[in-house]
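Q: What structure does this chain adopt?
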Amino acid sequence: MKNFFLVMVIAISLVSPAFAVSEKELFDTGVNFLKQDKFQEAVDTFTALIAMAPENPDAYKNRGVAYMKLNLYDQAIKDFERTKQIMPNLKGLYSNLGVAWYYKADFPRAIENYDTEISQSPDNHFAYFNRAICRYELKDYDGSLKDITKTLSLSPEFYLALCLKGDLLSKMNQAEKAKQAYEKAILIDPDQAYAKEQLAALKLDSKPMADSPKDPAKVTAAVVVQKKMPDPHNLPVRVGEKTEKASSPGLQGSAGNYELQTGAYRVRDNAVDMQKKLEKAGYEAKLLELTRPNQIVWYLVRTGIYETKEAAQTAKAILENNAKTEAVVRPFGQF
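A:
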């Protein structure tokens, strides 16, 4: 199962009133950088705070969050483990560790941390949801479905959990129950595309669908959904302001892979604006130039490289949720 909606629960901890004013100012500045998605600045600020207060668990935890947002998972884990040494029962700590190990594809270790989180907070439906994703990765579909059932008992209108339930039931050849799960998800959030697409695919094909969703987190007191770090062989290409020439329509994609397109523009500046919007949401995007036979030039904004269409469709749903923009699946290198 490639790319689902992993939810990372990251409550930004409050600083103790016992800290000196300068320490509190550093802490507040670091939190503000996190909220503004300025993650390197947050790392630098929390590092300065740690130099002043080396036993401050919140500083390590929030620096770990910033490292995670920079895809520096080993550093994040190191900070979370240091937090655990100082304050082992800090709220949300084990969920953060679970997400970090998930990103490193160590699903058993991620599950161990979710087990601890659930033992401390048995009503944390996000922890059950994330553990369900990890179990899906390990092809423990029964265990994953059990966790999703618990998730939905705690949060019956959790759209992403209903989508995963539909995927699991489809994988387990229970098409009618999968249909019901997708239909309920659509009723809850009709603006989201994923459940609609999966339901349409289910109606077209009675066979079990290929691997599906997963993925994580926004650094606020609220819980948000964000993209998973792509697999190494699926890393998108950063192009920045450079424009690449698009392949001609008849060319085969790269090894039959797929990518996501978020817009086709006649005005290059509009395409650049979309590219920046994707990058702000955490995606690396490229700008392609396509000249049609009538000499009309189109600027295409694309992101990602996916081995299968199912993986691309899953990533599409996640991107639309994270970046608040529509996307289409296109064969890599074809237009």
